[in-house]
Specification:
about 375 residues, Trna Endonuclease, Chain: A, domain 1, OB fold (Dihydrolipoamide Acetyltransferase, E2P), five-stranded mixed barrel, five-stranded mixed beta sheet, about 20% strand, disordered N terminus
Length: about 375
């Protein structure tokens, strides 16, 4: 199934596609609505200067609204500190994990049925990781740091959360990390304007650029899709590397930028995104067009997603001449959009590639 078909079968993508590209490609401030917050750990980990800075700006009233404001303020300042220190995502950290390492990313936390009991003070949940051949990671925390009993109950269910953590234990067969805070993503924050606030329902899946939002690829926007077998035959005949080269040539020909290959499967170039020229890294794994690109393939390709993230590009693209599995969309988002430093990302499968090259007269 093509990415385009997946989009059409998903209500969120249907709404997302209907947005004006100018709205869809804005970059509002991404905030985390905390459900769990270890205030003492947050203040301790960054030292006395951070603590004094935060305490000087808190509301001193003993009210519920004041506490809510102070909690959000602390999360904001911790996220700022993570950004300034260039803290990595979990996937990047797992390449060489060490005790006391920090990480911050959107992860899937497996539900724990046992800790719903009132006397359970220490809980442990396992992260469901897409990274093959990596040690399992457990999040261990004190349950009294939940901000409400309702939010505590949510942790009996598997859910996607923004998780800021510090590693406490690194063993041969597992890793244990302690969270500073955990919560859901939102644009509801004083750093955003009113227009951004209306987009909060999309925050968990934001920062994806669709292929035709990129000016150089708009030539394929009005090209109708033929039967899947026609696209497959054309892509196979053309060859994976040749398609990749032609896609890159479109970018450099249109805006006059230079293409630099960081390695055999990743090239850096500037794309034109609604008047902005973000530094763009494009990954293409040497895989035949008739084969589906999977997370297993990317993990085997010398941690291709990690290498893509570490290019430092502002727009991360995966291009393949054949199908791309849904799991890659989720994992690329995890790597590209850590809450403290989100970047844009894009997936271009064989269907999109065929339309773009056909529209440009390159097929």
């Amino acid at each position: 199934m093509s990415l385009e078909t997946q989009f059409e079968k998903n209500l969120f993508y249907e709404k997302y596609k209907q947005m004006r590209p100018e709205s869809r490609n804005t970059d509002p401030y991404l905030h985390v609505e905390p459900s769990y917050l270890n205030i003492a750990k947050c203040l301790r980990i960054f030292g006395s200067v951070f603590k004094e800075f935060y305490m000087a700006r808190t509301v001193k009233e003993q009210t519920e609204l004041a506490q809510i404001f102070n909690n959000h303020l602390l999360v904001t300042y911790v996220m700022d500190a993570f950004r300034d220190r260039n803290i990595s995502t979990l996937g990047e950290t797992l390449v060489n994990p060490n005790v006391a390492d920090l990480f911050f990313s959107i992860e899937t936390l497996k539900g724990s049925k046992n800790f719903s009991e009132a006397n359970e003070r220490i809980a442990r949940n396992m992260l469901i990781s897409p990274w093959a051949n990596r040690r399992p990671v457990y999040i261990q925390y004190e349950t009294y740091n939940f901000l409400s009993s309702l939010e505590r109950e949510q942790f009996t269910k598997t859910q996607n959360l923004a998780i800021a953590c510090q590693i406490d234990v690194v063993k041969n067969h597992y890793i244990i990390a302690a969270p500073l805070f955990m919560g859901t993503l939102t644009f509801d924050h004083f750093r955003n304007n009113e227009d951004s606030l209306t987009l909060s329902e999309f925050a968990p899946l934001w920062f994806e650029t669709l292929p035709f939002d990129i000016m150089e690829f708009q030539v394929g926007a009005e090209i109708p899709s033929p039967e899947a077998k026609t696209i497959k035959a054309a892509m196979v005949q053309e060859g994976t590397k040749k398609v990749y080269t032609k896609m890159l040539s479109l970018l450099t020909k249109t805006n006059g930028s230079k293409c630099k290959f960081i390695c055999a499967d990743i090239a850096c170039v500037e794309a034109n995104l609604l008047g902005k020229q973000p530094k763009t890294a494009i990954l293409n794994v040497n895989l035949d067009a008739e084969k589906t690109l999977t997370m297993s393939t990317l993990n085997q390709a010398e941690n291709a997603l990690i290498r893509l993230a570490q290019t430092g590009a502002d727009l991360l693209i995966i291009q393949h001449s054949g199908p791309i599995e849904v799991e890659i969309n989720k994992t690329l988002k995890t790597i590209a959009t850590p809450p403290h430093n989100p970047r844009r990302f894009c997936l271009i499968d064989g269907n999109f590639s065929w339309k773009i090259l056909n529209g440009a007269g390159l097929l």
